[in-house]
Design a protein that fits this description.
The protein is α+β, with helices and mostly antiparallel strands and 101 residues long. Helices cover 36% and strands 33% of the residues.
């Protein structure tokens, strides 16, 4: 099994009300991929960080293996969500992928 964790910071020019809607769209879009992308075991998006955080959105997902992670990255449903709800509104992205047992 492979964990795929991403942290995003939204663009600074977005208003607080825009950020609320964008976070909701990111969460709904990415979590809707469960059952659509082969090898995607679990996916959860967190959008309510503590004030001590320097990221605003976190993706915590589990894939069957590295091949599933590679497939997820290019799967049309994932690309559609990323291009529609994530990439236009984020300025910083950090990713960590690692094996779990």
């Amino acid at each position: 099994m492979v964990k795929h964790v991403i942290l995003w910071k939204l663009k600074e020019e977005l208003s607080d009300s825009e950020k609320i809607q964008i976070k909701a769209n990111i969460k709904a879009g990415l979590e809707s991929l469960k059952g659509k992308v082969p090898g995607l075991v679990d996916i959860v998006v967190y959008t309510d960080p503590l004030p001590s955080s320097n990221a605003e959105v976190m993706l915590d997902s589990t894939m069957e293996d590295e091949a599933a992670l590679k497939g997820y990255a290019v799967h049309p449903e994932h690309v559609k969500v990323a291009d529609t709800y994530v990439r236009p509104y984020t300025q910083v992205r950090m990713c960590m992928d690692y094996h779990i047992s």
